[in-house]
């Protein structure tokens, strides 16, 4: 999902909301540049996200949203269960992250200016003029800037100038055969994301059901309890889910900080060390804007966006 509107609870202040919206709105130009370079048309849906409401019309959220009453909701989405209505977050949507990741991988692999090192980093050394990464096999890689972007594992790197408050939060997802909705649906304790395999008329339609939030350390596995929770979410949202065939069930680890916001920007003591981690539930949404921002800083340019809400220094007292 690309859901700053539907996930506005995760965005506590105006600067954070502005950053998330700018991140979402960067997607069209980002995907168009990716298409020009790789030929891949990444499926991207900006039909809006419907946030289901069980009771009365809610008071408006800081990010707005259009109230859709029960009858209009039935017309829009006939397969859904019975709800009082929904808030339509018009500019939210979804992107096919599998196709996106494959295209990004091809782009990186085809660039002559990029040297890919396929090894695990054990530690870093930032007290030298050019920061260094020491790999598991003992090899050393050095560069003008060092970006820490190791997801839920970021805190495990040795040699960082300060502890990184990033921990794994496991999420499980299901893929069901068939489309249960036209829009991304946020409700029933989770969400449903319609997916098409391509834009061809005979494209296979599927639905992703998400997602659990679990403290399971680094155990990245699915569980029967996760399957039951996600099945219940799908059935609460759409009775048609009861007969939908299960295609797959998988898990991933979200990199979560204590305030659920990412850590972005330079280390206060080591300006050549840049943090790009802790994106929690919104790392796909914030991927292009993180790349744009951290890329600018890495080449010595100013950040195009205000990063003050995301500085590592906000955790200084707690650590
Ligand atoms: C179930 C689930 C649903 C989600 N839904 C959404 C959503 O709808 N919208 C959204 O915006 N976000 C969503 N997210 C969140 C999003 O996936 C993450 O925020 C995002 O993947 C974080 O990106 P990252 O690059 O920081 O970390 P990752 O994607 O985890 O990538 C980190 C990479 O670093 C590598 N690495 C780690 N340590 C080392 C090391 N020492 N040396 C070398 N490499 C290393 C890892 O192998 C990995 O490849 C979801 C996450 C989950 C789990």
Q: Any chance you could write out the topology, listing elements then pairs?
A:
Layout lengths: L13 H12 L1 H12 L5 E2 L3 E5 L12 E4 H7 L8 E5 L4 E2 L1 H14 L10 E5 L6 E4 L4 E3 L3 E3 L18 E11 L6 E4 L2 E7 L8 E6 L13 H14 L8 E11 L6 E4 L6 E5 L9 H12 L21
Parallel strand pairs: 2-11, 9-16
Antiparallel strand pairs: 1-5, 2-4, 3-4, 6-7, 7-8, 10-13, 10-14, 11-12, 12-13, 15-16
Helix pairs in contact: 1-6, 2-4
The structure holds flavin-adenine dinucleotide.
Flavin-adenine dinucleotide binds next to strand 10 and strand 14.
Feature tags:
single chain, three-stranded antiparallel beta sheet, D-Amino Acid Oxidase, Chain A, domain 2, alpha+beta, globular, FAD/NAD(P)-binding domain, 319 residues, binds flavin-adenine dinucleotide
Structure described in brief:
Helix content is 22%, strand content 25%. The protein is an alpha+beta fold and 319 residues long. It folds into two domains: 8-100 and 167-256, D-Amino Acid Oxidase, Chain A, domain 2 (2-Layer Sandwich), CATH 3.30.9.10; 121-161 and 259-315, FAD/NAD(P)-binding domain (3-Layer(bba) Sandwich).
Put simply, the count of helices is: 6
Largest sheet: 8 strands, mixed
Q: If classified by CATH, what would the architecture of the largest domain be?
A: 2-Layer Sandwich
Give the strand order, joined by hyphens, for the main sheet.
3-4-2-11-12-13-10-14
Structural class, by secondary structure, is alpha+beta
Beta-strand fraction estimate: 25-35%
Ligand identities: flavin-adenine dinucleotide
What gap, in angstroms, lies between the N and C termini? Answer: 32 Å
Number of domains: 2
CATH topology grouping of the largest domain: D-Amino Acid Oxidase, Chain A, domain 2
Query: Helix and strand string, N-terminal first?
Result: HHEEEHEEHEEEEEEEEHEEEH
Shape: globular
Number of strands: 16
The CATH class label of the largest domain is: Alpha Beta
Low-confidence stretches: none
The average pLDDT score comes to 94
Query: Whole-number radius of gyration?
Result: 21 Å
- The CATH homologous superfamily of the largest domain corresponds to D-Amino Acid Oxidase, subunit A, domain 2
Helix content: 10-25%
